[in-house]
């Protein structure tokens, strides 16, 4: 049994997508980041970086969503193509593209666009530009193929889906029209039964829903005000 410590954000959502697709048994362990659960001593022992998701798989602790996807792909032999050296390199390259570029830039775009205090024009422009640039690369990539790597649905697609399905919140209401191939890809995944389960995490009733000053202070502890 895999214990998944989660909230309803993009990174935990992609792990639920994998677990549902692979049919692996798991137990959800909620961590309400709006209430500061990620800073408890118990959770800090699992992840000193105080972020979800984390899994505990038969005593093995794995944190960071990309590390978890690799672990689960290797464990299950699913959605983790390990063919030629060229194919393995392609998968790793695009997974790191999502892990070190798409995710961080989109996360910062959300923070500065929606939650940072003024003045913030430079930061908003910086991170919105980078988020758009990464989305454009993916849109171009998907204009000629159904899946991102090796012609197969894989952990790379799941990682990108996690940071793309709410693109309107990241970039604005017109964003879907800017990236038609990427949005068709997102829709293909979102229609899968596993994705519907993953997307329902927010509506589970388990977590605090209101983003108030308490939530802001737990999410952004550097001392800034809303």
TrEMBL record:
Gene3D superfamilies: 1.20.1050.10, Glutaredoxin. Signal peptide: none annotated. InterPro entries: Glutathione-S-Trfase_C-like (IPR010987), Glutathione-S-Trfase_C_sf (IPR036282), Glutathione_S-Trfase (IPR040079), Glutathione_S-Trfase_N (IPR004045), GST_C (IPR004046), Thioredoxin-like_sf (IPR036249). CDD domains: GST_C_Ure2p_like, GST_N_Ure2p_like. Pfam families: GST_C, GST_N_2. Residues 1-80 form the GST N-terminal domain. Coiled coil: none annotated. Residues 84-212 form the GST C-terminal domain. This is Glutathione S-transferase N-terminal domain-containing protein. It comes from Sphingobium phenoxybenzoativorans.
């Amino acid at each position: 049994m895999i214990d998944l410590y989660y909230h309803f954000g993009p990174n935990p959502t992609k792990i639920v997508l994998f677990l549902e697709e692979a049919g692996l048994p798991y137990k959800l362990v909620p961590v309400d980041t709006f209430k500061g659960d990620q800073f408890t001593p118990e959770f800090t022992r699992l992840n000193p970086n105080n972020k979800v998701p984390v899994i505990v798989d038969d005593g093995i602790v794995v944190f960071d969503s990309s590390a978890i996807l690799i672990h689960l792909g290797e464990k299950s032999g699913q959605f983790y193509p390990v063919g030629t050296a060229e194919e393995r390199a392609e998968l790793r390259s695009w997974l790191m593209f999502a892990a070190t570029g798409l995710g961080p830039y989109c996360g910062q775009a959300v923070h500065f666009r929606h939650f940072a205090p003024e003045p913030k024009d430079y930061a908003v422009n910086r991170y919105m530009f980078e988020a758009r640039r990464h989305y454009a690369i993916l849109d171009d990539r998907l204009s000629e193929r159904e899946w991102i790597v090796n012609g197969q649905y894989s952990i790379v697609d799941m990682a990108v889906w996690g940071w793309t399905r709410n693109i309107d919140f990241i970039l604005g209401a017109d964003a879907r029209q800017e990236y038609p191939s990427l949005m068709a890809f997102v829709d293909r995944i979102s229609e899968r039964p596993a994705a519907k389960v993953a997307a329902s995490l927010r509506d589970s009733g388990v977590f605090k829903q209101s983003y108030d000053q308490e939530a802001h202070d737990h999410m952004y502890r550097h001392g800034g005000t809303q």
